[in-house]
Known about the structure:
Largest sheet: 5 strands, antiparallel
Number of strands: 9
Radius of gyration: 20 Å
Structural class: alpha+beta
Strand content: 15-25%
Oligomer: single chain
Strand order of the largest sheet: 5-6-7-8-9
Amino acid sequence: MAGTDDAVVDEDALYVLTAVLLTPAQFPSVLGDDFPAACAALGLEPYAEGYGLVLGQDADGARWTVVVDDVSLVAVAIAAWDCGMEHELSPGERTVVAVLPGWPLAVAVAAPGVPAPHDPPPEEGGRPPLTPPGSDTWGPAQRRLGADEIALQWTQWREQLDDGESFASPDTPEEERTPQPEGVRRALKEARSYLDCAPPPGRVRSSFAPGGARMLRVDGPGWSMVARTDDIAFVLLDEEPCEVLPVGRGAELPQLLQDLDGIAMRPA
Length: 268
């Protein structure tokens, strides 16, 4: 594999553009509601240690996703890139688990000196190229991407709510509830059920948030929830296209979030 600054095009090289982790605690949620589902979307076994996904182009410009089992190597590269440092990512051949056509995620950059990114020619009996989900429809993938965006831009989304605004909390009496899709209560009920019956790995994930809080990401069939343990929650539903539904803290939500954080997968 090669970096994107190589001056000479190597016909056998993969010019690495980016990489992501595929582990129980950190995976591209666009692929599924949990880690096993995300692995299945790529035809992989849900190996507990996880994988690294290396996205790049070959000398013809074709898009390829290389799956490797050296998670630490990929994690170090990602950390360096996030800090603005140069770091060459060159997994050894023995670490390669699979080479898949296409990219499962949108990549905004391209390798210099090679043709524009495109899917490789189909192979007889081969799987179709991976493609990122479109933005002109609404479904599970778009719902999960929406939840990703809220987690990344929590402050901006939170500021859109007027402090005096009334919105439902899990313990709000029925007669006092602001009209809200019944799916929100279903999502909260199913999230609470995870405390009694462990969900598949990755359904509940916890990451750092300012002030000692944790950012929770909880998913289930048809719904996604993003919450901070010291604040409110937002719910997205398959049946409510593009709607972001806030859930107030009330008396029950704080404990639910703390309990979910207790069973959540956390990045190493």
